[in-house]
Design goal:
This protein is mainly β. The chain contains eleven helices and 50 strands. A hairpin with a 5-residue loop joins β24 and β25. The longest helix is centred in the first third of the chain and has 17 residues. The chain is globular and about 95 Å long.
Length: about 950
């Protein structure tokens, strides 16, 4: 594995070797007027020059990325290219850029458009997943950091517009083909990636056709350690005596938190991404243009793995140690080591069709009419697995005191004793003789446990209509008026399917599993480069073969015989559906949202001596109506599980439908000023009000309680259909210095005040159980039971707070074209972002904290060489720690992460290039934790990827 110092030297050597060998509408309009500069851009230098020109000419605060050539985006992933822009940082999924954060505002706060249109998403929330779109299909991207009246509302952080290629803008016949092989060092496997584009114009350049297609495969093995929820429990003095190594715990403290489970995983993924775009353009005259765009993307992920899992068995905790934050960081327990088959698949399709009609009505008035229809779905309901195989009971030691990246679980053999081994005066389960360490599981001694097919599905449909008019005014001060209207309707449907209560059939009474169904395997190189000594052996099995065995009548009869049950009891409990996944209406919901908007914007321009001042002032009115439909089941009974301590069985009625409508409107003013002091200096200032609507998944009116309910953890989650949008008041300032055509130094300052901030809070809610019931049989702990009421801690979102975000962006871009020799082909692109907030997470109280997901500083440095024959680029990115999400009310933070990528290319001929790419050359890993160092959450090592390929254009 690479060490950072060695790797840096290697990259410098590679670069040395290469050198030795030799506004949305406004942006579209500019792209139309200047085909050569916008689209036919050659190499790294040309791409940088065009992006700089777009920024300089725009009336808005915007940063752009332009493809280096047709079908040649700077990175193979759109999100990873966007992170090179100041103020933009990304989160990764399986080592690939997936979602963006702009100026500290996470994915849900950024509106992402494709050709100015919203694209349906198969995710539960509003955040856009960039992994859906192959970068080859994208011709450019614009990040609007200030708002203007004509931009669709919804992005407090930014509005990002991705632009696909169009034939009349290319203006001639062109064909492009590329192929690469991608090697992943974790899986030690390769996969192909290919791209092709063809376009031409006809009938004297009045008709244009374009078609492009991309296929990207990837086979990877991501090493992970995953920690589940932290549970809090109160212990009396008698239990603390057997629980803690010192017999008392922390002085005067009775309530402690502990991690519910720990999983050691190599997540084997087979990713396939296929995308197509098409475009038809017709220009019968200089005054009329029709554009029809089509986009289709399919993203399939088969993510299957075996996790070595330790699950908390609270009644058997002993030898425990708690830290100063009352988190149990070390303990022994009597439990079964588990090997769990986990499949988290993805089968996504996204489609968009759009038509745009542009008409120059008169010399001073033009209109644009746009319609789009987009659908997305993830057809994965019930197609995942969570199947558990259990070893014989062992002493399991959980240890999070070693200062490693993740807790260490060690298993030991033991022999129960009939004498008082520990000397506490009582002979009980804690008296045993400790044996040898169990270094690997035994395939001959494995038993059935929990088994379920599960998974959620998403469907999203968006239809939009909008019209924009541009009226040029022959005035001394007023130069232009823009006005228009927008209507959009969206429907998002969430479904959930899982195995019924039979999932725990064999956990209550396990049976032995034949050894010929099981194989002992090892994870070679598991978590290399991550501090710690982690278990790398596991039991592998074919999940369908195992489920067939568990559904076999002979196995069910064996269970009856082993536990003295009446013949046929196990088969009756399993039921005719077996372990099939069934749709659960109580976990499904439908959200419908209708948006109507009107806007007007006036542009004023005036010269003061030689300085040009341009002011845009606008107002946007928007009305939103949401209808949330969910399902709620009445809980008929709760009863103690007769075979497992701390587990409750519950019975539900058939779900009934709940529906609620919410309606609100907003006025969103904005002013943007641009002062061109001279050819070098441009000053910008902006004021605006923006909004971000709440995540659609948060509007679900139902309540969900997970199966496998624990008496010690009576929790549920619910939505809130009455949520209002986040509203932000924004101030922006930017100073830009264009020293020459290749050099930019800029400083940007921003301040945002967000009202109606949505926080998640816990509240104690009673569920009344009708009589007769079995609540009186729950005797282990009756803290949350009063008569026919059982009290749950329900987590719900609410509009409660306000917060402020402020920060600065510094960017520098330069090419050393004035230096002699090969140095004239060297350039640099560097930026840093500083972001802060008026609120910080209160680690002493997790309730109702106002913390923005994604708020973090970041730095980027790109060095490149481009002499038209050889190209080389090395890119370094670092992102500081940030809050990512809430787990209930507990925060999950992502720690500092940095990564180094590189690319070298040789243009053998004018139209033929070969290249070599490396991603995550530093072999960096990511880590997540809670509000204390001892609250571990997640660590992942995705390894390094290499690609070698060839590209040709005609």
């Amino acid at each position: 594995m690479f060490q950072k110092a060695k790797l840096a030297s290697a990259i410098v050597a590679i670069l040395s070797c290469a050198v030795t060998h030799s506004s949305l509408a406004k942006t579209d309009a500019e792209a139309t007027q200047d085909n050569t500069e916008t689209i036919i851009v050659k190499g790294i230098r040309g791409s940088q020059l065009r992006a700089l020109d777009l920024k300089k000419s725009s009336d808005d605060l915007v940063d752009s990325i332009v493809a280096e050539d047709i079908g040649k985006f700077p990175d193979t992933n759109v999100a990873e290219s966007l992170q090179r822009i100041s103020g933009v940082s990304i989160s990764r999924d399986g080592g690939e850029g997936s979602q963006v954060t702009v100026r500290g505002f996470g994915p849900q706060f950024n509106t992402v458009l494709v050709n100015g249109r919203r694209l349906a998403s198969e995710t539960a929330g509003r955040g856009f997943d960039f992994s859906l779109l192959p970068a080859d299909l994208i011709g450019g991207a614009d990040v609007f950091k200030s708002s203007s009246a004509e931009l669709q509302e919804g992005g407090i952080g930014s509005t990002i517009n991705l632009r696909t290629q169009r034939p009349l803008e290319i203006g001639k016949f062109s064909a492009v083909a590329s192929a690469r092989g991608l090697y992943d060092d974790k899986s030690e496997e390769s996969a192909p990636q290919v791209f092709g584009l063809i376009t031409n114009t006809f009938a004297d350049d009045t008709v244009g056709l374009l078609f492009s297609a991309s296929y990207q495969g990837r086979k990877t093995g991501n090493d992970q350690v995953e920690g589940a929820n932290y549970l809090s429990r109160t212990y009396d003095d008698a239990r603390k005596k057997t629980l803690f190594a010192n017999g008392v715990g922390n002085e005067g403290v009775n309530t402690y938190a502990h991690q519910q489970q720990t999983r050691y995983i190599r997540a084997n993924e087979d990713r396939e991404r296929f995308g197509m775009t098409s475009s038809f353009q017709y220009r019968p005259s200089e005054d009329i243009r029709l554009t029809i765009d089509g986009l289709y993307s399919k993203f399939r992920v088969e993510a299957q793995s075996i996790a070595s899992l330790q699950y908390n068995e609270i009644p058997t905790f002993h030898n425990a140690v708690a830290d100063e934050n009352n988190v149990i960081v070390r303990y022994d327990q009597i439990g079964r080591p588990f090997n769990t088959f986990i499949a988290q698949n993805r089968d996504s399709d996204v489609f968009q069709l759009g038509a745009k009609f542009e008409w120059d009505i008169t010399d001073s008035l033009s209109g644009t009419f746009d319609w789009s229809n987009s659908r997305a779905k993830d057809d994965n309901a019930g197609k995942n697995y969570f199947v558990v195989v259990a070893s014989a009971p062992a002493i399991q030691r959980y240890d999070n005191t070693g200062g490693f990246a993740a807790p260490i679980i060690t298993n030991y053999q033991f022999t129960p004793s009939s004498t008082d081994v520990n000397g506490d005066g009582v002979v009980d389960q804690f008296d045993y003789v400790l044996g040898d360490e169990i270094t690997q599981p035994d395939p001959n001694e494995q038993f059935s446990w929990a088994s379920t097919r599960e998974g959620a599905g998403e469907q999203d449909h968006i239809q939009e209509f909008k019209t924009d008019f541009e009226w040029f005014v022959d005035g001394d001060f007023l130069t232009k008026v823009d006005f228009g209207a927008y209507y959009g309707e969206q429907e998002k449907i969430h479904t959930d399917a899982h195995t019924s209560n039979s999932r725990t059939l064999y956990a209550n009474r396990p049976v032995p599993i034949p050894s010929d169904l099981l194989t002992l395997k090892f994870r070679d190189g598991y978590l290399d480069g991550v501090p710690g000594n982690y278990p790398n052996s596991y039991i592998d099995y074919d999940v369908e073969e195992l489920l067939d065995f568990l559904e076999d009548p002979a196995t069910l009869a064996l269970r009856d015989e082993m536990y003295g049950l009446p013949a046929g009891s196990s088969a009756e409990t399993l039921g005719p559906d077996g372990f099939d996944a069934l749709i659960d209406p109580s976990r499904g919901y439908t959200i419908e949202e209708d948006i109507t908007s009107l806007y007007v914007n006036a542009q004023f321009s005036q010269y003061f001596n030689d300085m040009e001042l341009t002011v845009n002032t606008g107002l946007r009115y928007t009305e939103t109506e949401t209808t949330s439909t969910g399902f709620a089941a009445q809980y008929i009974d709760f009863a103690p599980n007769p075979l497992r301590d701390d587990v409750l069985d519950f019975t539900e009625s058939e779900p009934s439908e709940l529906s609620q409508t919410n309606k609100y409107d907003n006025w969103l003013p904005n002013i943007t000023a641009k002062l061109r002091v001279n050819d070098i200096v441009i000053l910008r200032g902006a004021f605006s009000k923006t909004l971000t609507r709440p995540d659609l998944s948060s509007l679900n009116p139902g309540i969900q309680i997970n199966p496998g309910l624990r008496l010690s953890d009576l929790r549920g989650v619910g939505g809130n259909p009455d949520l209002e949008p986040y509203e932000s008041t924004n101030f922006d300032f930017s100073s830009e210095f264009y020293i020459n055509e290749t050099t930019l130094f800029s400083l940007g300052l921003f301040h945002k005040k967000i009202d109606g901030y949505i926080v998640r809070g816990e509240q104690r809610e009673a569920i009344t159980v009708p009589e007769p019931n079995h609540l009186d049989q729950i005797t282990e702990d009756r803290t949350n039971i009063e008569g026919n009421n059982i009290f749950f801690t329900i987590t719900r979102p609410r509009n409660l707070e306000s917060t402020e975000v402020y920060g600065a962006e510094i960017a520098f871009q330069h090419t050393f074209d004035y230096l002699p020799g090969l140095l004239q082909y060297v350039g640099v692109n560097a930026n840093l972002t500083y972001v802060n907030s008026s609120d910080e997470f209160d680690s002493s109280d997790a309730q109702n904290n106002v913390v923005l997901p994604g708020l973090s500083d970041s730095q980027n440095l790109v060095l490149f060489y481009d002499d038209n024959t050889f190209e080389a680029r090395i890119a370094y990115n670092k992102r500081q720690s940030y809050f990512e999400r809430l787990n209930g009310v507990e925060p999950i933070f992502v720690e500092d992460y940095d990564q180094l990528d590189a690319r070298i290319a040789w243009n053998i001929q004018e139209n033929l290039q070969v290249f070599l790419e490396g991603t995550n050359l530093t072999n960096s890993y990511s880590r997540q934790g809670g509000r204390f160092d001892s609250r571990f959450a997640f660590v992942e090592s995705t390894g390094t990827r290499y690609a070698i390929g060839v590209r040709a254009n005609f």
